[in-house]
Amino acid sequence: MQITGRDLVTIIHGMLFGGLFLMACFGVLVLLHGSLSSRGGAELTVAGRRRERIFLVAMVVLGWGAVLSGAYFVYPWYRAIPPAGVTNPGAYPQRLLLADPHTAGWHTLGMEWKEHVAWMAPILMTMVAFVLMKYEGVGEEHRRVRSTAVVFALVALLAGAVAAGFGALIDKQAPVTGGSTINLMRGAR
Amino acid sequence: MKAGNLVANGAAGAAILAASLGCLVLGVLAVAGDGSKALTRLLTFYRPTGPLSGVSTVAIVVWLAAWLVGNRVWRGKTIALGKVCGAAFVFLGLALLLTFPPVGDLLLGK
Known about the structure:
The complex is a heterodimer.
Chain A: E1 2-4, H1 5-37, H2 46-79, H3 93-98, H4 104-134, H5 143-173, E2 181-183
Antiparallel strand pairs in A: 1-2
Helix pairs in contact in A: 1-2, 1-5, 2-4, 4-5
Chain B: E1 2-3, E2 6-7, H1 10-35, H2 37-43, H3 51-74, H4 81-99, H5 101-107
Antiparallel strand pairs in B: 1-2
């Protein structure tokens, strides 16, 4: 059982950073919903606030990890142009998709939407994390701030979901693969 | 920072407006870069990533600069958050539209 180096980086980009970031965005929405629906509700302990801060910082790091690893590692492999003489575009996903009118839309709509909208998610969630940390414990006085944060977090979740969904579907159509081989398990004798 | 028991909302307003402005710049540059070969070249900060490197970097720089300036101006002040959020929602809506390729293609007459 083997994977390639590019497979591994793609998994880290999409499943580790992207997948966990999306889950964390959903967690923030639950957090915000809870704080909006409880009027003068339960106060967090000092340890609880510290855990909430760690969660928010981790979410921001995951979001930036997803877009930066995507843009600077996976995307260059995806959009690489085959050298002259290469007749099989299999190792060049963008070329492979554009070569067939039935799959071209995965690039012209899917990748072109994903590559831009994805950046909105960490920008918005960095702002949401800042607002939540800055105004922790004063939610009641700043319901409008928190309500706005809910809208922005929802947009970030949508943007992240578009990016993740298209990323997974495009990788099924034309996988980013290649590079050194990593043995995960020995084959059966 | 605190007036009585109330925490000023200026820092939140600055963060919200700056984030939506950064997203809008991202959308505008995504469409503009797609429509101009000169701009595409200009936005190619890192060749393997292509113009996406410049589009995202410029958007991030504008976002952080706007946040820094807004925070300096509004920190510790109570602002009309409704107006700021209204503007932010408009910016965010436009950004979402502009990053959707069919809208960009429509604007560029493709």
